[in-house]
């Protein structure tokens, strides 16, 4: 007869579990094909200086087209992280984003910034340095135009060596931005310990700030802190004019969100790059 200890193993095969494993398996296989067949695209979401309405640059966001639209990065990035596919994906996004930004900067006669999301998992190995250097070399972009957006996940889970890699990145002239600021527990102590240049306030607070005095206070305090630490401050997820005006009055350096511009393909980014947002 079955002893008690076999019960957990039987639960393994319940329907919802196998459906979710199946889903991950399909994503992994699909991603492998997407990487080989160059199906992944890079979209750009511009960010602006609120006062002048001037385009400053864009954030690169990976896109994986499927039959109905796009597979959400929130679904496949975690899979890529757990299979190791994130390295190839990350290197590809870095290269594409730097090359496109170099081209557009030449066309505009103005050095645009390109912010690239980098997974904490990429900081588990030295490869990130070589991949970054290669993207910079191939594109001919200035390292100072490149910003890496990282979340506090970089520091969680004992990723030894991450701190040293961050120092190396900064020594190259590349800048660091703390993404989704306010979402985690420990961002403050990480800001203190590591060489960040920008702080990107999470869209949750930006979206709440007009209605919620608490959210407003948190945004205001984040701005004051960033100024005291001489960090640039970016607001993500700006969806309304009221939010934008509020951010302008708080002297936020850069604003990004659907109200200003959606993530778009490179040819569209080229078209809007000349337009100020006022
Ligand atoms: P994130 O870096 O915080 O990027 C912001 C996300 O918010 C993007 O979703 C963007 O499309 C969305 N967004 C922008 N403006 C607004 C707005 O006004 N309102 C709302 N509701 N959403 C807005 P997306 O493209 O689905 O990316 C989700 C996350 O996936 C990113 O969050 C980032 O963590 C990750 N990701 C995306 N591309 C890459 C990549 O190339 N590499 C890595 N490692 N992660 C990526
Ligand atoms: Mg980001
Ligand atoms: Mg973010
Ligand atoms: Mg996010």
UniProtKB/TrEMBL annotation:
Parent-protein start and end of this portion: 233 to 510 of 510
Domain EAL: 24-277
Keyword vocabulary terms for this entry: Membrane, Transmembrane, Transmembrane helix
UniProt protein name: Bifunctional diguanylate cyclase/phosphodiesterase
């Amino acid at each position: 007869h079955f002893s008690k200890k076999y019960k957990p193993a039987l639960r393994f095969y319940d329907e919802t579990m196998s459906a979710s494993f199946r889903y991950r398996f399909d994503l992994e296989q699909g991603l492998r094909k997407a990487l080989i067949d160059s199906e992944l695209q890079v979209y750009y979401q511009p960010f602006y200086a609120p006062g002048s309405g001037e385009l400053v640059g864009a954030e690169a966001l990976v896109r994986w087209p499927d039959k109905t639209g796009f597979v959400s990065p929130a679904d496949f990035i975690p899979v890529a992280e757990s299979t190791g596919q994130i390295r190839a994906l990350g290197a590809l996004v870095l290269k594409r984003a730097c090359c496109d930004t170099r081209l557009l900067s030449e066309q505009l006669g103005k050095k645009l910034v390109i912010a690239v999301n980098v997974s904490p998992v990429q900081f588990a190995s030295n490869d990130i340095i070589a991949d970054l250097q290669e993207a910079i070399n191939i594109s001919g972009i200035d390292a100072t135009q490149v910003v890496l957006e990282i979340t506090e996940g970089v520091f969680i889970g004992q990723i030894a060596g991450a701190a040293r890699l961050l120092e190396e990145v900064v020594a190259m002239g590349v800048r660091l931005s703390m993404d989704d600021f306010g979402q985690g527990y420990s961002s403050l102590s990480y800001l203190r310990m590591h060489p960040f240049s920008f702080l990107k306030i999470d869209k949750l607070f930006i979206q709440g700030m007009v209605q919620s005095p608490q959210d407003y206070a948190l945004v205001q305090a984040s701005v004051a802190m960033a100024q005291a630490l001489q960090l640039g401050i970016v607001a993500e997820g700006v969806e309304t004019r009221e939010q934008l005006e509020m951010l302008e009055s708080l002297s936020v350096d850069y604003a990004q969100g659907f109200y200003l511009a959606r993530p778009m393909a490179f040819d569209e980014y080229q078209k809007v790059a000349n337009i100020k947002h006022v």
